Amino acid sequence: MTLPSTELEALSNHILFQFHDEIDKARKNSFKKKTDWGYELPSNIDDTTKSPRWATIVAMGPDVMDDFHVGQVVLIDALKWTRAVEYKGVEFARTDDQQILAFDADS
């Protein structure tokens, strides 16, 4: 996962992030998931988006709760994000701090 430049800033309580699972553009409407030993497990985008998804925070607005920080791994509630957009060749999406269900305290 490649994070965009730190010049990217979010507003208000918005969080910009990258999902841990990537959309496979070669196979429309599926996510890329690989096992530890390299086997690809395709899944339908409609099925996957109905569940909460793990992501890494890349930028946060000034009003985001103190519980979160850039680089932290968070679990975002199902469908509580924007469509991904590209910035400097990297795709990311936006949510707000009220949509975070859980976070990895070690990240």
How would you describe this structure to a colleague?
It is globular, with a radius of gyration of 14 Å. Strands 7-8-1-5-6-9 form a six-stranded antiparallel beta sheet, with no helix packed on it. With 107 residues, it is mostly beta strands. The chain has one helix at 45-49, and strands spanning 14-19, 22-23, 30-32, 43-44, 53-60, 73-76, 85-87, 90-96, 100-103. Strand 7 (85-87) and strand 8 form a beta hairpin. It has one domain (14-103): 10 Kd Chaperonin, Protein Cpn10, Chain O (Roll), CATH 2.30.33. The chain contains one helix and nine strands. 5% of the residues lie in helices and 36% in strands.
Summarize the structure.
The protein has 107 residues and is mainly beta. It is built from one helix and nine strands, in the order E-E-E-E-H-E-E-E-E-E.
What is the topology?
Elements: E1 14-19, E2 22-23, E3 30-32, E4 43-44, H1 45-49, E5 53-60, E6 73-76, E7 85-87, E8 90-96, E9 100-103
Antiparallel strand pairs: 1-5, 1-8, 2-3, 3-4, 5-6, 6-9, 7-8
